[in-house]
Amino acid sequence: MTNQINKNFKQAYLTENKDVIARHIEDSPFIDFVNGDNIVRGIYAERYFPISLDENIFEKYWLLRRKALLFDVPEKPIEITGEDSEKFLDYIFCRNLYGIKIGRGYYCLACTPQGGIFMDGILFKLETNRYWYVQADGQFETWLLANSNGFNVNISNPHVWVLQIQGPASTSVLKHASNNSLDEGFGYYRSDFFDLGGQKIYVSRTGYTNELGYELYCPSDTNHKALWDHLMKCGAPYGMEFSSTRAMTMRRVEGGIRENLVDMDTSVNPYDVGLGQFVDLDKENFIGKSPLINANKENKLFGVICKKTVPEVHAKITKSGEEIGKITSGVFSPTLKCGIGFLSLNSPLKIIGEEVQMIMSDESIENCEVVDLPFFDQEKKIARGLDSTIPDVS
Fold first, then answer.
1. 378, CA 20 to 30 Å: which among 22, 58, 211, 233?
2. Structural domains in the chain?
3. Rounded to the nearest 5 degrees, what angle is found at the Cα of 213, between the Cα atoms of 227 and 313?
4. In sequence order, what are the residues at sequence separation of 6 or more whose Cβ sits closer than 8 angstroms to the Cβ of residue 177?
5. pLDDT-derived band of residue 3, with 50, 70 and 90 as boundaries?
6. What is the pLDDT of residues 119-148, one digit of tens each?
7. For residue 371, what pLDDT is reported?
8. What are the CA-CA distances from residue 387 to residues 188, 257, 391 (Å)?
9. Are 255 and 213 in contact (CB under 8 A)?
């Protein structure tokens, strides 16, 4: 069977004969539990993942916002060990990592020597001199190896696969799945090992939806069928279902979550995309420090709201007839009941609240309003568990 091509997604799609096309691409150990004639899969971080199951995307979206969804995601943990691990990671990432604590996740950016964003992800310290960096899309393992000269470290792919359980019922699901050992006291960005159905699984209270949620890191020796069945059984009383990542994409845009190689890449620095708070210029040294010291610190990434259409990726944005930027991501927001997207400006502008024009691929012009990110829940109260309001579907 040849997978149908869906041009709305950036990933490439492959035939079943993937061993011939790309031997190095890792396949999900959970794929047999969701595979079917309607599945469309893409590649992210050299891993296959399901981006569409021909499901009702709006039903899945509201399950995510009102109950819980289980996602099979391609985020890729890279393991860093050795006596120089902390020193090495502090050199690689913009954030100050000395004294990093076991059991807590740290969002970190890695920059090029020119200050451009090479990678973003979450760093976990599992034990002394043992770390996992859960990377986004891109060739990060090679980057770490290339910059490890002079450091006593070992860099490897531990072949850990990631599941996400996201939504307001996710704590109840995992509380049930862990026999009450994981509960409401497990804080935002905390991480630890838990017994889930008799298997030791690393869990973090993080996600890619800006909903209350968790990520489960499943090592290669996991009994994946047993874990899957256990999670689905524990999630059933709370209405949890499995979903492709389409509902996740809607929420990540609503939540203002930037995607590597989509909304940011080596052509922009952390300040350009509103992530300057994760840069510590007081550190002694890190890759990209010198250009970041001299960089303009103004944000150039904003949101746009379009009442009549969904923003097209790469569509030009103009104001008073002058091109000022382009769209990097665009979705329909069921919560806001309109199209929303990310606007990357060519240069810094005071533009929040202004009306701009979007030039579509058919050369039609649509008016949009520029807003700050995220589109709602500015303080991330939902993801932090401080806002448990269930949104109205109507």
1. 58
2. 55-297 (3.30.1360.120), 298-375 (2.40.30.110)
3. 110
4. 196, 197, 230, 231, 234, 235
5. very low
6. 999 999 999 999 999 999 999 999 999 999
7. 98
8. 13, 19, 11
9. no
